[in-house]
Fold:
Amino acid sequence: MQRTDLIPQKFRQGAERMAQAFRDLDQVIVAAHVNPDGDAAGAVAAAGHVLRSMGKEFMVYAQPGLPGYLDFFSMPGVVHTTLEHPPFKPRCAVLLDCGEPDRLGRELAARLPELVTVNIDHHLGGDGMGNAANWVEPTAAATAQLMAYVALAADLPLTGELATAIALGIITDTGGFCHGNTSADVLYLTAHMVEHGCDIALLRERLENTWSRGRLTLWGQLLQRARLERAGSVCFCPVFLEDLRKCSALKEDLEGFVEQLRRLRGVHVAAVLREDSPSSCKFSLRSYGSIDVRAAAARLGGGGHRNAAGGTLRADMESAGAQLLAAIAEELDAEGVA
Amino acid sequence: MQRTDLIPQKFRQGAERMAQAFRDLDQVIVAAHVNPDGDAAGAVAAAGHVLRSMGKEFMVYAQPGLPGYLDFFSMPGVVHTTLEHPPFKPRCAVLLDCGEPDRLGRELAARLPELVTVNIDHHLGGDGMGNAANWVEPTAAATAQLMAYVALAADLPLTGELATAIALGIITDTGGFCHGNTSADVLYLTAHMVEHGCDIALLRERLENTWSRGRLTLWGQLLQRARLERAGSVCFCPVFLEDLRKCSALKEDLEGFVEQLRRLRGVHVAAVLREDSPSSCKFSLRSYGSIDVRAAAARLGGGGHRNAAGGTLRADMESAGAQLLAAIAEELDAEGVA
Structure:
């Protein structure tokens, strides 16, 4: 298979356009949304590798830095958490995986007007963030996938750290080849990178084997506490500040927990309600197929996607829990789910 | 990409040979090892589909039937759990994913001498089980992967139930594209099937979202009980008969639990010891990379692979736990792991 054959027809023009846009840049800030996840970090790293191969000066900016579980991941250069002392005077920016300017971090958002910007994303919206060029493809599984096509259009082989960066983004945003966005294109791209030495098994191992003792204990307690509602169609679990403290666990240790509850047989909606203060709680909802938890979240002022949504409730846990379960029940009633 | 291009060069001759062997069969028992897992069931189903497309009579035999979590999976015909009343007089057998005759189930093992047998497997050993033809490829990720190549060599499109069967085997034996056997070949094959309509996201959802309430409660208790040994390099968890009873959980609800313990940061070896009777315990070991738990298991009369091994100890839990931890420590000492 020719390298450029890996770029799906529908993405070819965009990839070529972006490769050209990259060639026109220099003194570049490369950045994604704040609190970068694996796709944001992977896309940023991939953009850095492409710029480096083109001989450009660039700096990586991430607010407030990469999360601890990505410590193993090698970025192309220092990760700057401020723009106060840049290594050069930035003239351009490549913006990645970020639907809206506000999510770039305050410093970078304020600088945008004075920069030549190129924007690449797979989230809906944000089409206009690049003043020089925009490439927004909601059918792509990951922004890193789009960066792979930019690299291929720039005639770079998908090997070494570039391939690892792309694989990181793909693995993150497909849930490890689990979600419905795991397209044939994504699998062909991954197959090609594995064929050329990318060790996805090692990458997944490093991503997934980072449980702390506190996380293990916390999950243990919460799995026992989770309760079924509405004849088993809803699984609900409240999490108190006290739980985190007692287990020496962090908020981030809850990541993935609501998905775990959704795995219960018969459960249509999984809901986790986390206490943030005596008068504020954060909720996360997950569902399958046609069940729309975004609609349930919207009733409470939250948002998200059909199968993954969330929001904040200004109430104590008891009241917030009642509101949350009522909103879910209303949505299930509206959809006719027993 | 041409369909036959999907067959790696190293597997072409074998696939052609097996396609021819299938053409020579009729009145066929299709079977894998007892207590079939996803790869065994997937390979059996795939072989049934190939035989059906060739106009052959066949029956699926599985002892003691498929596990409950595969209820959703559509087999090509009734799953026979005995050979006492076959729908035809069996003349031939296709044996899949089974390293030794004993693991076929007593009835079928006893019948082997009177049958024309073809054997396809990716486990080491068992090379001689087919008296008409053998194809054993330890570098294949799954027996279902080999069946895909047989189907392609027989000029069948990898679509519909045939593709689902192959994907089931691949997903099972690669741990959801997690393990080191997730080769480029496996990914190209999966990409091709997804391109032609195979819904791997739905398949994974059905495979993974089958937790019972009892399983959730059991894991909750055990996650809290798991303890670190040897300065955090070993995570050990004993499971008593009483635990299963109290949580209304089954032995099979422990599946995946030892892998979960291995995800703890810093843990080299995860060990679960399950009480089967007051004087017998079963142990499961998992490790990463170079750490050889097969060697530790062998010290106790067990076996397995380098990173996944197990066995049975004729002792009570206390004594068995001490023996197990000593064997692991001995192995880690031998390998120089602090």
Summary: The interface with chain A takes residues 1, 176-180, 182-184, 187-188, 190-192, 194-195, 200-202, 204-205, 208-213, 216-217, 219-226, 228, 262-265, 267, 288 of chain B (CB under 8 Å).
